[in-house]
Amino acid sequence: MTKIPPGVGPRFPQVVVLFGATGDLARRKLLPGLFHLSSAGFIPGCRIIGVSLDDLDIEGFRKAARGSLDEFSSRKVSEADWEAFANSLDYVPLAAGAGALKAAVVEAEQAFDGESRRLHYLSVPPSAALSAVRMLGEAELVDRSRIIMEKPFGTDLATAMSLNTKLHAVFDESQIFRIDHFLGKEPAQNILAFRFANGLFEPIWNRNFIDHVQIDVPETLGLGKRAGFYEQTGAFRDMVVTHLFQILAFMAMEPPTALEPSPISEEKNKVFRSMLPIEPADVVRGQYTGYRSEEGVGAESETETFIALKCAIDNWRWAGVPFYLRTGKRLAEGQRIISIAFREPPKSMFPAGSGVGAQGPDHLTFDLADASKMSLSFYGKRPGPGMRLDKLSLQFAMHDTGLIGDVLEAYERLILDAMRGDRTLFTTAEGIERLWQVSTTLLEAPPPVRFYAPGSWGPNAIHQLIAPRAWRLPFERTWRDPNRLGS
Ligand code: BG6
Question: How far is the CA of 221 from the centre of ligand 1 (A)?
């Protein structure tokens, strides 16, 4: 069971209004996450009101919630915890309207002795999100509330700006929490700890020592039942504008003046402001063969299921350092890595054939899998006569600390932060709009999609994109198995 340090929970009890309560994300992540936060004691007394198009009563919703925990909770669900959680659930069908929603929220709040706060979670597509926002306005549920929005935050600059204007008509920017679950992953926050809590790497974290950076998030997953969503988005909008660019900002930003929301946002936004427009010539768009025959996909669909691109941050720290980003569906492996390649030594005195440089440059690698891992690879001498060099590595895995059970899942962490009003890991309207702005050249003239075989690493053109460098994945070595240490 997670141990709860003092002061990590919200100051006031919360009423959560969960729009899209029977949808995929709610079933997979949000209900299991809220259950864990409740049962572990992070959010005492929290009440949850589900809202969706489904015509359910409370019992029907409880049954659906139980089903989602049984299917998706990564932790054991005890009957006592379930009883308590089930009693905190209520349900209002969307068709019942603003008045019924307000009544349910007011009733939930009456269960609290003193002050409370509201958290509206909009786990719905963009068009439905705006009607939910209007409904909340109409129901007068804007005071004392915060609202979590799911991506996409627009599909280009114009739609993002229009969405923000409509949101701001009801909610103040300070109330809006745009969620990017990659930033809720423990290892993503560990980038900040690693960079700013240590003196070792910061002096070399710049163009003088770093040759290039790769952010590589291949997925083995296909579309599942998401063709409707995916056909409108594609890999660039689904993964790059949100997750990969956000991770890039953590990796590239200047030290903030304090580890607090505004200074961190400010530094991230400066990275986005320094990004050069994405040039279509620096982009490879791919589509796996067979995609066009998936249910719900057009026979001539040009939607990309894969994207690899080169981008640049034109500031004093990073000018001239290419950042290569790649992600896609139905690829050879599921990985999430940031790989930082250091410059090679200016001169090698090692004899020809010694192996120096043969396995690429030294790398620092962050693995963003839930069980955070890092490694630093370097050349070292192979034991025995002569001077033969091998690529060796120092590795750390969160598993080694024995604290792996304390890791909160990304959504749990972010819901808790939103309840506490902590915006550190959320994106701002300004940041999002700037990212759409740098993407405009690409969105206006996307290169044609190239086909790739499911189970591959994408279209062949990815090698030309990065040449003379090489993609770090697939790894030439495997992560050390912590269970075999010392053996
Ligand atoms: C989602 C995307 O935001 O992130 C999905 O919409 C993608 O297409 C998913 O599969 C990846 O998240 P994770 O946490 O599984 O790496």
Answer: 9
